[in-house]
Amino acid sequence: MAMPRFRALATSGPARAAALLLALAISMPLVAGFLGRLHPALDAFSHFRAHLAVLLAMACLVLLATRQWLHGAVGLVLAIGAVATTGGFLPWHAVASGAATEAAGAGPRYRLLHLNMRYDHPDPGRVLSLIGRTRPDVVTLNEASPAWRQSLRAIAAAYPHRLDCPDERSVGSVLILSRRPFLDLGACGLGGRFGLVTVDFGGHAVEIASLHLLWPWPFAQPKQIEELLPVLGALGEHALLAGDFNAADWSASVRRIAAAGGFTSMPRLGPTWLVRSAPDVLRRWIGLPIDHVLAKQGVVLLDARRLDDVGSDHLPVLVEFTLRPQPTTGDIAIAGLDAAR
């Protein structure tokens, strides 16, 4: 008796209408996200594309259960297509192709570690231990609060070169630590949310930038990106940009940043952020992919991956890279002096 009653309810007018309205309510912001280039308000929806696609797929199953075959099929195609644009069917780990590695030659390998530490992290020792275990050449940090500056003194001997941008907010600013010497004094911008310095990697100059954008529209992220575009456009061919962009890699915001800087490599690392109280396994699967490392043509990313949770609401990101041939730092310095004269 229960099954006929269920079938009757599922095919009733109100049930069919409710199922269709639910699918439409989910599909509207999903489609809006694909129009993000038109306005930042539309792009704000794009960051949740994967989540909306899963919800739409579930809603389409309800449509099929209510015998709305056409609407259900169209919705499923949209959901599957949306997931495909997020790289949801690809492994979340990036390794350079053999051709790219060969093109870079057999040069030395370097490491960059990026992490949004969270300004009020309760156990700094976990982050310091991670840096000690991975021994990166350069570390780009976000949310370096006054408390973090005190804690990071413990590794000052191992990382004597430091770009410390002014902390104009309680949540902290960006910080770049390096084992390798700096070739300039560096520069900061966006109220301490952007830092850029040139690092000497075995006689070759590489520009390293750290970025921590604000939240998407209606917050100030679009304005920050607009301010940042000329700086990114002036970067040389050997540059890396790492940070918490507060934007998914498929969004118009991130793609605009990549295009402005001429970045050719942007590995999809998978979700890196979720509320700190959530289990690490959920962060890796249903979180937001908002931490990125972008490389220009002169830098070949050999490996890029998320590391284990260290107590922040963000996962650490570690990349290994090598450099394509370039002039030595001595040649670059002379060219700079000539230009100044």
Task: Walk me through what this model shows.
This protein has 341 residues and is α+β, with helices and mostly antiparallel strands. It has 12 helices and 12 strands. The protein folds into 2 domains: 84 residues, no CATH class; 241 residues, Endonuclease/exonuclease/phosphatase (Deoxyribonuclease I, Chain A, 4-Layer Sandwich). 40% of the residues lie in helices and 21% in strands. α2 packs antiparallel against α4. The longest helix has 21 residues. The chain is elongated, with a radius of gyration of 23 Å.
The CATH architecture of the largest domain can be given as: 4-Layer Sandwich
Shape: elongated
Oligomer: single chain
> Using only CA atoms, what is the Rg?
23 Å
- Quantity of strands, as a count: 12
Give the SSE order as H and E letters. Answer: HHHHHEHEHEHEEEEEHEHHEEEH
